[in-house]
């Protein structure tokens, strides 16, 4: 191991190679957590240097790494403007996306500082943009999810894709975790069929599944010559295209309905089944904090028609009191809180004085 490390360092012939090697090591480290994270960071960091220095990551020299706070601020501002991508299509980043891009570069510079590069992380200590324009993923019911499960069976590799969607609903696994699954992910525990994946934050997530679903996966395994459950050509972008095609077929125009909505569907169904048990919603979504499932529950249980603000300015309906006799009214007043009793007495005294 030591010899390999020494060979890596002594083999560098220029600052360009040293920078390239450091960035690649940083990105590989991100890949240990998630391949999706590595891909996102690679794109964000690559875009930063292409937009600011006009160079690719393997072309950088030491002076290219030096920035001022103002330069970074101007880059952030530029990202908020409407621009065209490489294909000439007009695009506008959401604030959440911009924050993510800056965070990726900020994280790289923290890494470079730790490796004695003459850079300052403070150059990137700009304020994050307010994410007021961040749209949440749509939440769908099982009935809607079932439409997708049935419709995709008419596509190429339809059975495999339908299993992908159904598994996403019943387990609420993230897409990137499922695409990394091998056949060893399936098993049995205490007589119950189960599946296990490495989820967000490198945390294992094991869920039970019905025997019928398990057997359908085993039938799929018989047709496979790979250790992977889902083929390499079924990557995130291919799934996005699949979703776009399915929504068109089903006449659904909701832009916030994505594959992630199937995860939300599983959480919603658990919410309904358990009567809003926050712990069970948390377990279904594999969230480390109760705040996320609590926020989810509050959103799903919100009924605009019953919100108190609709009663502001409205007269209180006192008609139910008209049928009460004197003894019933006194009993009602005695059982009321001190604030009600005090207000009644103040009104009574004011009336007596008049």
From TrEMBL:
Domain of life, source organism: Bacteria
Any GO molecular function: DNA binding
Sequence ranges assigned to domain Tyr recombinase in this UniProt record: 135-310
Keyword Glycoprotein: no
Core-binding (CB) domain mapped to chain residues: 17-113
GO biological process: DNA integration; DNA recombination
Protein name: Tyr recombinase domain-containing protein
